[in-house]
Amino acid sequence: MNTQSPSPRAPRIYLAGDTVFRPGAADLFRAMKDICTKAGLEGVCPFDGQAEVDDLAPGAQTSLLIARLDRDLMDGCDAGVFCLDPFRRAADMDPGTAVEIGYMAAQGKKLAGYTVDGRAYPQKVAQYRKQAWGDSLRERTGNGGSGTTEDADGLIVHSEGMVQNAMTEGFIRLSGGEVCVDTDLLTAFGMAIDNLRQRLLG
């Protein structure tokens, strides 16, 4: 009689980011999953739960289905890794990924992040304003908060010392995770996966 205990399953990692919108997304996810496997982890990407979406017409109901399927995938994962790259040439990251950071943080799961753009968030805002609107940031007249400058509309340019909004990068760091930076996307991703590996497997 076989009395051996079954091998424990590998921790499941939700692969979050704007990857789903990028050219060659399927190949990119395969490379990411390979990195996870080599680290003793199982990568889970949004495409894994969206087979039924392929034949549906775009629209509100399809979008709601995708949101539900992604939520279900996150519920079944032990941790998440998030791309914090600026999205659509703006300063901020993909807003859907930001929501996913908050969702998994609320579940108390381990998080890590990665980006190819290690500039401070205010630098990204300054470049965006210049390119999109032709204006510059200015020094704030008020005190306190997380920023010393404001844009031409008077909005505070917050989150100094971080590469993204303090609530997104902050939730990752508050979970004990790191935001890893490298000019090569998969290298930065691999660094973030190693951070999760150490925290999940020791």
TrEMBL record:
Superkingdom of the source species: Bacteria
Record-linked Pfam families: Nuc_deoxyrib_tr
PANTHER family: 2'-DEOXYNUCLEOSIDE 5'-PHOSPHATE N-HYDROLASE 1 (PTHR15364:SF0)
Name under which the protein is recorded: Nucleoside 2-deoxyribosyltransferase
Organism the protein comes from: Komagataeibacter medellinensis
